[in-house]
Every structure is written in C-alpha cells, then in structure tokens.
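Researcher: Here's a chain I'd like modeled. Treat it as a single chain, no partners, no ligands.
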Amino acid sequence: MEDGEVPRQPLKPPPAPDEQSVAKANEAIAIRPKRGRLTLLSRRIYNALLYHSQRQGVDEPVYKLALSELIGDARFNSNNTELLKSHLRDMQATTIEWSTSGTGLKRWVSSQLLGTVTIEEQGRGRPCTITWRYPEEIRERLVKPHQYTRVLLEISGQMRSYPAAVLYEIGARYLSSPSRLSMREDVLWWAAVLTGRSDITEVDYRFLKRDVISKALAEIDALCEDFSLELIEHKQGRRVEEIQFRVLPKLQQRLGAADDPSRNVFDLELVGKLIALGLKQDEAQDLYATTDEGQLRGTLEHVEQRLRSQALPELKSPAAYFKDALKKGYAGVKGAIEVSEPASALTLTRGRAAAPSGEDRMHRIRELWENDRMQKAKALYLEMPETMQAEMRSRFEAERLAQIAAPIARAWRRDGPASRIAATTFHRWLAQVTWPEEPSDRVLLDFALAQGVAGM
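Model: Modeled as a single isolated chain. Structure tokens:
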C-alpha cells in the first residue's frame, strides 16, 4: 500500500462508550492485496478482531476472545466454524504492502494481513475461544495507529457488498478533510481495492463502473446516513485513466443503537444453503450482498420444494435453476413449482438455447403483470387522502415490516414511501392487499396481448 500523504489528525474524537468503533489505520483502509483475495465477511471479521485488539492493548502479543462475541460483532449469525475458518485463511493468505517515508528514510514492508489464529473448542458447556496474532512488523501500527479513521462497526456492518464496505471507510476517512477528495489512483488500482482481488491485470472501465462502482455508490447512498460519494473521472483523451471520489455530507442523523434487533446481520446459514445447492462460495456471498434477503429466502424455498417434488424430473443443476428462478421472480408464485428446467441450464443446440417452454413464458408474463399492478398500486396510493395513506402505512408496518431486510426497514422508518429502496416493497405489498385474487391464465394472456409482449 502507498502512504505518501501528509499525516493528518484523526477524523473524529473517540465515540461514546456504547458505540463500537475501531481506530483503523489509514493505510489499512484502501487495501490492495498483492496475493490472495478479501471478501465482505473477511473485512467484517478483520474489523471486529481489530476492535478487540485495541481494547486489549498494544502490549499484548496474543489476543483472545470468545468466538460467540466475534460472531456477534462481525454481524453474522452462524456458528459454522468451517466457514469462519475459510475467511480467516483468506486473511492469512493475503499479502499487503506498507510504504512509509520520513526524514531521510523510506521503509517498505510486505506482510500478511493476519498472523497465527487458533480456535479452541473446549467441549459441551464451555465457551469456544479464538486467539490471534498480527505480524510483528505491523502490529503496533494496526493496534495503536498514529493516523487513523474511526469506523463504527454498526454502520460498517450494514454494507452488503465488499466495494460498498471499502468506499464507506474511504468516505469516513475523507469526510472531515478540507477538500473532501479521496486519493486519486489509476483504474487498475481501484479495481483491485474495490474487489479485494490480487489477480486483476487488465480492466475494462465501462464494466468496472457499471458492475462495481455504480452499485456500491447506490448502496452507500441508501444505507449511510452521514454522507454519499460522487465519482470523479480523470480522462486522457476519451479514455478514463484515473478516478477518485468526493465525499458529500448528509444531515446528521443517528442510527439506532447497536443492540437494535433489526440491525443487518450476515446470515452465514443462508449463504451455506446457497453453497449446498452448488453455487461457489464467492458467488453465494455476492448474491447475498446484492439481493433482498426476503427474495433470496423465498427463491430458496421454491427450489427446495422443486427438489422434493416426486412428480417432476430430477434437476440437473439446482444452482442454475436457483439463479434462473431468482432472476424470473418465481419466489412466492403459486404454481411456479411446475416450471420446467430453466433455459439457462438446458443443453445448447447448434449454438442456440432451446426455446423457453410455455410454462416459462407464462411465468415471465406474470412477472410483467405483477410489475404493472405494482405501478397501479403506487398511483392509487398517491390519489388517497392523507388519512387513508396513514392507515395504509400503519398496516404495512404491522403486517410486513418485521419480515423485510433490515436496511430496507431502516429506510422505511426514516423516509417512508419516499425512500427509493423501501418504496418498491411497500407498493408491492399494497398491490397484494388491494387485489388479492390470483390472475387466471386468461387474464395473463389478455394482459400480454394488450401489452404486445413478444412471443405471444
């Protein structure tokens, strides 16, 4: 990692005692791995370990903690130690570089992110513990940093994707900087930092912006109440060569307390079920990070029902079927269990996929019909008198709010139907309670003909 910047004072004074915050060395925020790969969960675990290391003190050569406490602070809810171990291995295998310069001295250090880790399971009735070390060359700079950024674990734990977690910490670092401008680096540097990957050698900026940066910026805008970020592109001719970010402060609004039961947690049990279907671990985590949790659970339940069905042929690829079902919104749709193998999992013939079945077409029409009905519900709500609107909002909160993902629930409590991320959930619910009857095939076909849906 490069560190050629003028030392600055800490961004914020120490937080109140009830706020879990880690004083994260500025060099450890924009980590560019030289070997290995970092994930969202490994970053959360690392922050939690660092938080407890700082509480125990820089003079301790080895740090120790109850495993259950680490699990809670890292915001996931599974005691699956094998998955935890895999993320610890990722951090041990990740090589980082620290570059510092002073009067007449330049120092370069290449080191592991995390040293030796031990998990001790002491038998039934006794707590499981974890001990860990940091490489001696960087331990003091991590545990007692001179230049650092205060990172609240609660806010960091809300981020659902690795790029958003990185940009949140970068935003926190430069929030009180006079210019509020982040470091300016080339596109390849940012690609490695924002993905946590060390194997990137070439980048198409268009895809990096579309698939990584834009989604992360939208996530921060929705979940972070302190600031948003603006992308700044530096071009050479028509080509974007370097980028940086400007931090845009928001009105200060305190989030709920750290013990709020609605806080976002990283559900390793759900991720484990996705892996059991045949998804790769990274793919499962990425899906969890970018998809509404309720939608994931509904789709998983649909696929599990399909796997248990004795009347239908055995699925050749449950993972492919799951991804297709998630994309087409089969979750919660009556009769969706009857759908045949998704087109993406079918054998290709002469370079072209087999034509979708009649069932596939009907489910696609239903998806379009439900989206149309949701827009009508939105228009209906806007026409209601204020008293009726308030009644609908109260009913939604009573019937639905506890079931939706925590970030969406928080957005609803803050902004109501004006929230970009909560409005869709609210209007979909409103459509369901306003028109609860199931559409017949005749109704769906008439809708498709009226809308000019292709293939009809």
